[in-house]
Design a protein that fits this description.
The protein is of the alpha+beta class. The chain has a single domain, classed as 2,3-Dihydroxybiphenyl 1,2-Dioxygenase, domain 1 (Roll), CATH 3.10.180.10. The chain has three helices and eight strands. The longest helix has 11 residues. Bound molecules: cobalt (II) ion. The site of cobalt (II) ion has 6 residues, from β1 and β5.
Amino acid sequence: MPPTPRRGARIAHIGIAVRAIDEILPFYRDLLGLDEHPLDDSDGARIAGLSAGPQLIELLEPLSADSPNSPISKFLERRGPGIHHICFAVQDLDGTLARCREKGVRMIDSTPRMGAEGKRIVFLHPASTGGVLIELTED
Ligand code: CO
């Protein structure tokens, strides 16, 4: 079988940690004119999805203020609101993970799990990515 041609990753979404979706949503929806794109809750966060071209902006709000296990709660506590992660869609998630492992990239998830968009995801540690939390998903 000939090797599958490799194609570069594309940005799937940018996750932004917010304290209250309701306060921020009007900026993105009404002033920038982004269409809402419904998404399920995930990882202890309520998510408001907004289409920005083929990419999404995801506003991530902790489901409850007292959910210490929510990664978004922890992020807000430590750093305040802001860009939380960038998600890249890759054509071959398993192959990409294998290459990352081979090069010693630090992983947050050791194996892929289901993300809010019903696709397999993994998070890579910012220590290996230039300081940015990176999510990988399937294209
Ligand atoms: Co994400």
